[in-house]
Structure formats: structure tokens, C-alpha cells
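USER: Please consider what follows.
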Amino acid sequence: MQFAPPKRQKGNASLLPMINVVFLLLIFFLISAKLAPPEPFPTEPPVSVAASEAEGEFSVYLGADGKLGFRELTLAAKDDVTPLLDALVAAREAYCAQSDCSAQPAHLLLRGDQSAGATRLAALLPVLGKAGFAQVELVTSRGDAR
């Protein structure tokens, strides 16, 4: 007794259009996403009535206890700031190697906690200037205009 092989059923459904849609969505989300390094520690920015959002290529964090952070580097309030300065200079040089910093200099954002002392902030500004950042923007959160 010999059995005939089962007949193959042809399906009209093709997976190619679905695969195309999935790849297009993947490309869309990769292009539209803004990838940023994580914050070294949380900060609560001071409140202001800023007209626009601060934008920059680099962010330095100043905690309420005077702690400093840049990317994965975190320094206590009493630590020497030389490692932070060296990391900023290296990051700025790498950025300037890819972009024309003479036409448009790199921007530095200072994300300071609202409880951080003004003396610590004032002492930090000349250090950031030595790293080659002539302009430093303080990041604030929007408050009510009263």
C-alpha cells in the first residue's frame, strides 16, 4: 500500500511586508531617539522663568552636597577637581575633532541642585573655563511667571 504525499497548501500571506514595516519602525525609533548618558546622581534644578530650554553637548552635575559629576565620573565635595577637568578637556577635544569648534564652540550645561551653595557654583566656573568652555549655561526648571 502506497500513500500519496499530502498536497501542499499555498498560502497568500507573505511575511515580507510585515518585516518591512518592522524594520521601518525600528529605523524611525533609532533616528528619533535621543541617546544621552545617565545622570551620575539626581539633582533638583533651581526654578526660573526661562524663555527657552538650555541645550549643550556636555553636562556637569553639581549636587546639593557639593558633589560633582561628569558622565561616569563622580567626585565628592572635598576631592580635587583635576580628574573632572581632565575628562572635560578630553571630551571637548574629541568633540572638536569631529566638529568645527572655531565656528561654533561646544556648549556646557551645568545641572546644579537648587540647594547647592552659590560659593561652590562660583568656584566651579573658573575651573570650567580652564577646560575650554567660555560659556556655561545653568539648567533651570520652569516656574510660574508672577
Q: What stands out?
A: The chain has a mean pLDDT of 81. The CA atoms of residues 25 and 31 lie 10 Å apart. The two ends are 94 Å apart (CA to CA).
